Structures are given as structure tokens and as C-alpha cells.
Amino acid sequence: MYKRKILAILLGLATIILMGCESSLSPSAKEEGLSLNSTVPSENKEALSTKTNYSVFPAYSQSGVYLPREVLYYFDFETNQTIVFCAAPGCRHDDDSCIAYLGNAQKFCEYQGNWYTVLDTEDGRLQLLQTNPSSGVKKNIYTWKKKDECITLCNRCVFAFGHAYLSICEQPLEPNTEESEEHLYQIDLDTGVCHEILVTSYPATHHFLGASQTQLALEYTSLGENFLGEEEYKSIYGTGETYSDYIRDYLKENLITELRIYNFETNDYLVLADSKTDGYTPSGDPTVCYGDNIIYLLNDDLYIYNLSTATNKKILSAKNIMTYWLLDGKAFYITGTVGDCGIFFSDLLTGKIHKIKNQGSSEHMIFSISTETSDKFVGLYSEQSGSSTGQSWISKKDFYEDNYTNARVIG
Hints:
mainly beta
């Protein structure tokens, strides 16, 4: 169990250990011809957790956002008001008779006009449920068999090209056991047919990125079989050597992350790049897939891989890229080090690179965007002092023109 708890910490440390510290600057952000509105891709939509107050999901209408909590709220951009998404008179919104009730749901997504939830059933199983928001009609797409003495959690759920891709973790209830498994499933939303693509057992992990009609992309990370937990390390080596030094050295020698492309026709995969031989560095940002494009970093070079055409394209080079992501038809990236960074984006149509003014701050991203509608960004707005106003929205025009004071709080 101890190893499982520190796995996320190790993967985070790996990114810091394997990168440099030099900063790189690019041309000015204010150039003519910058697109302020975009058509938001309808594929590769990630379901969001209902167990946090930070989940904000753009509504299909583009005029507001969903706030999936224990019940489903809707925030309207024009009125700046939040309501429960239920019009039934006298409804208490506290059971399944209410269309907005999400009580047992782990995840929520709107895809192709329907709502989808991954929920826990009363008998302890996991279920993928479809709800028509107009009629309220619900349809069970798939229900997993109950596994005794095991906690089942949906780590990630993405909808693409008529399918749902779910990473389901099965963690034994028995204390101090490390025999957890994570399963990647593909489910046809029309037929309910379920196909298991991959199973990873601790200490290996996978992270689904996105899919097209013919391929999917994921990261596969292995720590090796000989990693020692802190107590095991001390029992063998005592306290003469520090455990943090052991972690650093072990990661340098053993951690490998592969960027894999799975082909549905051949039922096989190729390793597009890996961290050992190619300098592949995972982003850590959830929006590395945009439509059917994924963005990835090899050393100092950012690439776009199209999952539909199976084609690669190098889009830019920059020193010390800390993280990167795709939104608004643009490749965003941050260079430098923590507390001394520059924020840039490259327009995928023109190839022009712009630096975001960020109100002159190099400490952190003042408006940290997480999702979008056609003409607005949603994200965390933090003032120069670092204090956050919480989830907010801002027009894309104001964002690109550095007018962050026009941001409005959601909720």
C-alpha cells in the first residue's frame, strides 16, 4: 500500500529531475491576424469528477457550463446565475427521480447531446449510464461485474467517435497489499459492447490520452520491479543514505514512459517515443488531446500527431519546456523553472509564436485556462499576489489582450 501512495509523487518528481533550468523567450504576443474564436472539437471529451468543486464542463449550447456536483448545476454566462438543471416543480433533487441528481456518480460528461455518468450502483457495481437531457430517459450502456473485497474507481473516462474509454482501477481492500490492477476498456455507446484493451498491474501504470476511429494514444509508465518503499529501504540500508537520493537515482536509471499508439485493426501498438531513448517528457496536463490531435515533447521539440491520419508534424522548438497543452486551435507551453517562467502559444494554422503578457508576472499563470467554449476560456484566476478567486470565465479576446480584470467568477 505504501508504494501505491507514493507512486504519484514519484512520477511528478521524475519530470523535475529529468529537465533543465534555462529560460527561453519568444516574439511578442500582439500580432495581427490572431483568431479569437474557434470551433471547439466535439471528440475526445473527458468526463469530470463530481467529487470536487473545481469541475466545470462546457455545455453543448456553448452559452454556459455545467457544474457537476451531487446534483447537476448550470451556470449561464449571460445572466451570471447558477441554477439546478431541473425544471420539475417541487423537486428536492435528492434521488434518481430528479434528472439533475448525480448522487452516486463518480464522473459526468456531455457528449453528442446526451449526458453520461459513471456511477456506483446500490449493489456495489460500476455502471456507465446515458441520460437524454430533453426527455429524461436513462439507458444503461454497460455495468461491470462486482468484484468482492475490492474498491473499484474510474480514474479516467473519455468519449470519442461513438465510444467511451474508461480506465478502471481495482484496489484490494486488504491492508498493505499492492496487487492493484488498472483496466482500459472501450465501450460502444450504441451497442454496449465492451472490449478490454489493456491491463496494467502495479507498479506499471497507463494514462489514456485520446482516440480516433482507427487508433488510440496512451502513456505507459513502468518503475521496474525492484523499487523499495521507505521502510524496506531503511531495513536494508539503514539511515546512512537518504531515501530522497535513492528515489532520484532510481528514477534516473529505471523509470520509462512510453507514448504508445494502438491500432484497432491490427490489435497491436507501436511505441511512438519513450523517455529513455527519445527524450519524451509527459505534459501532465489533461488537454494534450484536441479533437484527433495529440501534442507531445521530445527533448526541446514539440510535435503534433494526428490519430486519424497517423501523421507527425514538428511545430516548434524551445528550451526547457515545463508543460504543454492544446486549446483554441493553439499549442500552449510554459518554459523556464517554477517561479521564473514564460508562457507562450503557437497558432496551429499560421505557425506564429506569441508570448502571453501575463500582466508581467513570471511567478505563475494569472489566468490558468482549463477548458473553453467557442469564444470564452474557463479556468482559475489568480491575482499577482497568488490569491485565487476560484473558477472563472473570460472572453478569449480579453485573455489574449491581457485584460484579466474582466474575468468573472463562476458559481
